[in-house]
Design goal:
The chain is of the alpha+beta class.
Amino acid sequence: VEKFRHQPTVAFFCQYSAHRAPTVANFFRKSCPSKQRVMVLEGGFRGWEAHDLPIQQMQTTVSQAACDELALKIGQNMSKFT
């Protein structure tokens, strides 16, 4: 929350913005300044992609399996807050 305290708007998204993004946005909203706008990207990343909006491919040396494992770990840790 501190890192984004001075941003007028903070947007959250995940693959579909059906569970993770709204959960984290609500958690963030409880601690952010009252005038700060907190948004969730409708349809998530997949919705963005489906509308042919620009996507930048990132070069990475981390395997997809390692990324999936990290995402699962973070998700499990976040579930402790809900």
